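Reviewer 2 asked us to include a model.

Predict the structure of this chain.
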Amino acid sequence: MRLLPIVGLLSGCSIVLIDEVCDTSTPTVEETGSAPELLFSAVGTGATHSCGIMDDASLYCWGLGDEGQLDAPTGSFEALSVGHAHTCAIDEVGDVQCWGRNDDGQTDLEGRFDAVSSGGAHTCGLDAEQRVQCVGRNDVGQTDAPDQRFLSISAGAKHTCGIAILSDDATGSVCWGELKKEATPEEGHLSVISGSGWACAESSTAVSCFGSDAEGQHAVPGGLRYDSLTAGARHGCGLNRDGLIQCWGDNEAGQTEAPSGSFKQVVAGPTSLHTCGLHAGADEATPITCWGLDAENQLMP
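Predicted model (structure tokens):
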């Protein structure tokens, strides 16, 4: 399969992610033609849309926009996180702005935060005091953040995980919501990623996964050290120390068929069947390549 920047597969699927069914048409391959190359400093993927921070710090979104997913605010932004059908971003002064579907209050997060993570129908923010605030759907406790300090957070489809400060010299993974019973605090974890009903946490020596493993999403390739990990609905990807992407798990739509080349970021959202990578380069903003499901043109800005 030949991949070009912003080229992907359109693949049929039928998968329940939150409470929805994706049903697409016959797979086709589509190329960008002579479209101008866009440069991004960050990118994120949802179920049927994607968003990125461009080289001028503005936001740009593409894909399905039937519920305002593409109505990104204006201004300069430093970070973003794309959920199932909504997105939140942190602007240059640290304020969070969210847009897209809001049937459960998932875009109602307000205030100043150091980090934000968008899940299936909920959103969590990490404030300057290292405390977590969550809004949105709470049918299984995914917004019931524990009262402790965290270094990072990762919202999944119906759960949230974070790296908690367990003591003055120890950190570990803590989860709440759908995976609360699956994950007790485990000392030594340095980062954690959340998908749809599963999660993986990384220590200095290994990656351990918990929750659903129906599509082999626990089968993280061994023998490699990763600079970063990301989780899609039922697949995962890692960026190794050579800048190469390796993916595993569900490949129904080609979402694990990572392109060759050197990258500096790889992202898959907690309910997404597509993945995007930010190419390596001397400049902060570089081209992106996306692969996987393209039912709503979510691969191609």
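The chain has a mean pLDDT of 88. The CA atoms of residues 174 and 184 lie 6 Å apart. We have added this to the supplementary material.
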